Amino acid sequence: MIDHVSVGVSDLKRSVRFYERTLAPLGLSRLVTRPATIGFGKNYPEFWINLRADMAEVAASSGVHICLRAKSAAEVDAFHAAALDAGGRSDGAPGLRPHDRVRYYAAFVIDPDGNRIEAATFLRDVEA
Predict the structure, then answer these.
(1) Element housing 17 (H / E)
(2) Domains recognised in the chain with CATH numbers
(3) How far apart are CA 58 and CA 52, in angstroms?
(4) Which end of the chain is more exposed for a tag (fewer CB within 10 A), N or C?
């Protein structure tokens, strides 16, 4: 249903370094490079970062976050570890998030500009 998403970043070079490392465990790589925007994806750009040099850090109270699908819990773990290693902050360690109708495994990170990014995978009973 959604074709692509984008987030604003205040420092494109810093954010490229962060997202190249953070998105790699999910199989996303840099596909498009333009002066003020970079597109990451598997087959086409589905996650964009756009330079907004004068933007303020995203407020923690904004409630906005983007969730990317992982193939496995191991990918979620690798996403979280890569984000922290690349200068991000944890906003929820990798773990099972049980809910009424679904069981999923997810991790949440905050990029250098305050954007909240999640990686999640839905688990079958044998994986839990």
Answers:
(1) helix 12-23
(2) 5-53+64-127 (3.10.180.10)
(3) 12
(4) N
Residues 6 or more apart whose Cβ sits within 8 Å of residue 48: 4, 5, 6, 7, 37, 38, 39, 40
Query: Binning pLDDT at 50, 70 and 90, where does residue 16 land?
Result: very high
Strands (E) located in 1-128: 5-9, 29-34, 37-41, 45-51, 65-69, 89-98, 103-110, 116-122
Cα→Cα distances 88→7, 36, 45, 82, Å: 15, 21, 22, 9
Crossing angle of helices 73-85/12-23, nearest 10°? 150
Lowest mean pLDDT among 5-9, 43-47, 102-106: 102-106
| Beta-ladder partners of 67 | 118
**Per-residue pLDDT reduced to its tens digit, 25-38:** 999 999 999 999 99
